Amino acid sequence: MVSNDPLIHTRAFRRGALRFLLSTIVLDAAGIGLLIPITPRLVAELTGEGFAGAAVYGGWLTALFATVQFFAGPILGSLSDRFGRRPVLLVSLTAFGLSYVLMGFSRSLPWLFAAQALAGLFGATQSTAGAYIADISAPEDRTKNFGRMGAAFGCGIIIGPVLGGLLADFGTHLAFFVAAALSLGNVVYGYFALPESLAADNRRAFHLSSAHPLGALLQLRRYSGIPGLLLAYLIMQIVMQTLPTTWPYYTMQKFGWTARDVGLSLGVYGLANVTVQTALTGWIVARFGNSFTARAGFLMLMVGYLGFALAPGGAVLLACIPITVVGFTTGPALASIMSGVVEGSEQGLLQGLMASVGSVAAIATPPLMARLFREFGRADGSIYLPGAPYLAGAALALGGAIMAFRVLRTTRIAAPPGSQAGLAQCPNLGDSSPK
């Protein structure tokens, strides 16, 4: 639902707000991506183990972030529904910057884990940005704007890993301070440039009963079909998070890539993601609808991950990246469908719950996929199949396609009686036929 505050319908407001949101996501992704080529080396240094052993610690490091964010997401989402998006975004960015500073000074694993916990506690940047976009987007623009978020993330992935790979030559700590500077610099920009999007009449009281994942799910389940779509979203998140969890370790182990090679490959991945999200997402949704986009995206993820798992060399691996990122259109489509039927006063709650769902995936995926890589990636093992995590991801993507097909085919999702949100605001819902 779009707020009835006339301010947010002005072109200047939307342009300025989107500029900050997209730059925030770019810098946030760049800060995270910058650390991807560095983290395996840092963890290996702190533990004294090789890459296979470091992958397990790296997986638990990511899982800690996700565990804290799982509980924090609905709280911060509910706070943004009560106090507005702007303060939550600025506090989150500040916390991210400070966590990177702590990582930069880390000299032990507990120190590194503590910094990750701080980042997870205030890790609401993406979810609150999503609620902000839901506030200011007309129904016909919602999927396109969610796609722009994906494109902005792709830009950060282009910048971050490439820069991280270059900074690796100067040690394993400098990159963390660069990431901190990006985040804290954006706080200053946001303080002066970011307006508030949530009108006073769309705010709701903060209730502890819904400020946790189960409470949020119980409150939002009155929107028929939302639980099934959240399950499909969970599957998508597991599939997508398999790549950053295992990519550095997989490519270094199987193809002998360096940190620079990993950074450049993720730059290619980011460039392909930007191209798809900016040039194809809007066209696909306008032509075929959100329902078709969500289901077809799962199938593209399946094909791309099969290619990753079975690639005989780096050239084939890189060729599968464009196929995979086309599948990333599933995310904006599912987000648009759910956002289109939830009231404006609960957009933060929805985005917080989606962040929690993503956190469940982030909690489960790193240990599971790192364990698969460790078991099948050892040259002295009974079966040498380092691409096992990507085979598992392909199977899950197929399951996600089946889930999305069943939910969107058999369920006509509508808002509760009396709500102004509904199918009129999401005309593509449940309709996969070309227009």
Q: What's the structural blueprint in terms of helices and strands?
A:
Blueprint lengths: L10 H25 L3 H9 L3 H33 L1 H20 L4 H13 L3 H12 L5 H26 L6 H20 L19 H8 L5 H30 L3 H21 L1 H8 L1 H21 L3 H13 L3 H10 L7 H30 L11 H23 L25
Description:
This protein is mainly alpha-helical. It has one domain: MFS general substrate transporter like domains (Growth Hormone, Chain: A). 74% of the residues lie in helices and 0% in strands. The chain is built from 17 helices and no strands. It has helices at residues 11-35, 39-47, 51-83, 85-104, 109-121, 125-136, 142-167, 174-193, 213-220, 226-255, 259-279, 281-288, 290-310, 314-326, 330-339, 347-376, 388-410. Helix 13 packs antiparallel against helix 17 (388-410). Mean pLDDT is 78; it is low at 1-8 and 414-435.
Provide the CATH top-level class.
Mainly Alpha
Stretches where pLDDT is under 50 for at least 5 consecutive residues are 1-8, 414-435
Number of domain units: 1
Number of helices: 17
Q: Could you give the count of β-strands? A: 0
Question: Structural class given helices, strands, pairing?
Answer: mainly alpha
